[in-house]
Design goal:
- With about 280 residues, this protein is an alpha+beta fold.
- The chain has 2 domains: about 1-35; about 55-279, Outer membrane phospholipase (ompla), Chain C (Beta Barrel).
- It has 5 helices and 12 strands.
- It has a 12-stranded antiparallel beta barrel with strand order 1-2-3-4-5-6-7-8-9-10-11-12.
- Strand 1 (about 55-70) and strand 2 (about 75-90) form a beta hairpin.
- The chain is globular, with a radius of gyration of 37 Å.
- The N and C termini lie far apart (about 100 Å).
């Protein structure tokens, strides 16, 4: 009997150890069940992290403008116009007017440099221009300062023509642009344009030689305010890529420009319409 008791005492520790092992395995399994599940692989997030976001935009299209044949003329013509606009980040913009590089932008204020062109004028553009000669196409350089107050922007710019008419032109403007709906953007703009003596003489003056050739009286305009422009525009987004833009404007010649013998009409209206595709 004593032998039997001894054997029972030897077996007990073994049973106790086995029980503890089973309990440990059970606790481990329970802990594994309580641990959070592994997150599934997010392919979209992975692509956004390793593929850089595009910081440029491009709009390509075409349109037409109905406007006077020359500044001051009363006859109108339809001219094809390119509808192109390329932007890169917040510092580069290229459109039919030229290239704009924004060097400074802070708290609504911006300072930009521009390179563009002055289209000149052909003496065949109107009867009153015959004998005055052509004004050649020329490059322009300029600087523009602007201050944005929400959808409203105030601006002042100066532009110098290289060769050609050697014009120096200053433009002071106010512009409003804001979306009305998800697809419609409306805008309005008003600006005053001042010019130096060389610009006024080239586009509105008549010297002795030109007077003899054209029959117009001699006229020598002086520098000053030459024109005030007002316009309204609407841009409608047809879908994610296609858009239509229309604009109507009125220019009013003033001062010595309005009094020039080559001017047939002081009011200079214009209308344009274009369609573009945004990449």
């Amino acid at each position: 009997m004593f032998s039997t008791i001894q054997n029972d005492r030897r077996v007990s520790p073994c049973i106790f150890g086995l029980a503890m092992g089973i309990m440990g395995m059970t606790d481990a399994a329970s802990a594994a069940d309580l641990s959070p599940p592994e997150r599934a692989f997010d392919q979209e997030r992975f692509e956004q992290r390793f593929e850089p976001k595009r910081n440029w935009s491009l709009i390509l299209g075409a349109g037409a403008m109905y406007k006077p044949e020359y500044e001051g003329g009363e006859d109108f013509k339809v001219s094809p116009i390119p509808f192109v606009k390329f932007t890169y980040g917040e510092w580069l913009e290229i459109d039919p007017k030229g290239v704009t590089v924004t060097a400074l932008k802070h708290n609504g204020f911006s300072l930009s440099g521009t390179v563009g062109y002055e289209s000149g004028r052909d003496e065949d553009d109107g009867d009153r221009l015959r004998g005055l000669g052509d004004i050649d196409l020329a490059a322009t350089v300029g600087v523009k300062a602007a201050y944005a107050l929400g959808p409203v922007e105030l601006s002042a710019a100066v532009e110098q023509t290289i060769s050609g008419s050697e014009s120096l032109i200053g433009t002071f403007g106010i512009e409003y642009s804001a979306p009305v709906t998800e697809k419609l953007i409306l805008g309005a703009k008003a600006e005053a344009i001042v010019a130096n003596d060389k610009h006024m003489e080239a586009y509105f003056g008549v010297n002795s030689t030109q007077s003899a050739a054209s029959g117009l009286p001699e006229y020598k305009p002086k520098a000053g305010l030459k024109r005030v422009n007002v316009s309204a525009s609407a841009t409608y987004l047809l879908d994610e890529h296609w858009l239509v833009r229309g604009q109507a404007g009125l220019g009013i010649l003033t001062g010595d420009a309005a009094d020039s013998p080559i001017v047939e009409e002081k009011l200079q209206p214009s209308v344009s319409l274009g369609i573009g595709y945004k990449f």
